[in-house]
Amino acid sequence: MNSSTPIAPAPVLAEVVRSGFVEGYHRGSLVLLAPDGSVELALGTPEQPVFPRSSNKPFQAVATLRAGLELPDELLALAAASHAGEDFHLAGVRAILAGAGLGPGDLRTPPDLPLDRDSAERHLAAGGGREPLLMNCSGKHAGWLAASAGRGWTTADYLDPAHPVQLLAREALEEATGEPVAAVGTDGCGAPLMAVSLVGLARGFRGLLRAPAGSAPRRVADAMRAHPQYVAGTARLDTWLMRALPGALSKAGAEAVQAVALPDGRALAVKIEDGNGRALGPVLVALLVRLGYPAEALARVAAAPLYGGGEVVGEVRAVV
To answer: How does DSSP assign 147-170, residue by residue?
Structure first.
């Protein structure tokens, strides 16, 4: 595309309503795949590459398995997680590392606090500070480290895009999405970040559920669905959605990306253009309700209240 070519604005997916007045909009792109894998609904430019951020984590966990690491299901789910830093998450990360003779000091995640507010407040009240272990990607990193140690690969440079574990991650993503990686960047956790389209991302999630039983992709999907609290936390969207819709697979990513695969063969992927994740829940639930899922079961996922003076005075609501 010529740099002077005007870019059409993305469609509005959600509006921000305060005290009955629409004060803003969230634009974006989305795709819904039918049970046979064809495109059932497309809004915006879902064929354009995006950085899926942590929505790529299931495929990165596939690489961990293909490198030879064996983990119990809850720790495999943690290797695909954006965890909240709750106590059971941190114990799990330590267990993955200890199984390979490693420790939190081997992590190259940036120091951070738990995403879970209560856990963060307790940690700070006890005199703690930011630590690599507490960063939400430490489960993924621990899996890569443990797999690398088990294969005799170097661990100090496990985030190098040319490291064997990262080459396996790229291969898993390209295989699942049916697309070559369009760009490589650096994620917030320091890991290589690979761009694919929303169509490819939805296709990849659909493939995770349809993979043969016992295969690496299916094992990751089954572990995440069986232990959703390890994927996100006890009070976060992915956990709520997978518990509300048994058999579904859900993984959010930073900058307002979300991918979901459903047991009937459908799959969807969403990107909110401005990166504000508050629009994801309302948009996801609007799509799911259109597919016949009960709104009541998904109310907690859909909720995006706006506050004024400590009271709810509005909401972010989907318009798809």
So the answer is: HHHHHT--STTTTSTTSHHHHHHH
Q: How many C-beta atoms surround the C-beta of residue 30 within 10 A?
A: 24
Distance CA 235, CA 300 (A): 10
Q: What is the pTM of this model?
A: 0.95
pLDDT digits (tens, 9 = 90+) for 177-197: 999 999 999 999 999 999 999
Give me the pLDDT at residue 2, please.
46
Cβ neighbours of residue 70 closer than 8 Å, sequence gap 6 or more: none
The DSSP line for 119-150 is HHHHHHHTT---BGGGSTTHHHHHHHHHHHHH
Phi, psi of 71 (to 5 degrees): -135, 150
Contact 55, 261 (CB under 8 A): no
- Mind listing the pLDDT tens digit for each residue in 7-54? 778 999 999 999 999 999 999 999 999 999 999 999 999 999 999 999
8 A C-beta contact, residue 114 and residue 123: yes
- Is pLDDT of 254 > 70? yes
Residue type, 157: D
Q: What are phi and psi of 18, to 5 degrees?
A: -120, 120
Q: Where are the beta strands (DSSP E) in the chain?
A: 12-18, 21-33, 39-43, 49-50, 184-186, 192-194, 196-197, 249-253, 257-261, 267-272, 305-308, 311-318
Residue 215, amino acid = S
Residues 274, 205: Cα–Cα separation, whole Å: 23
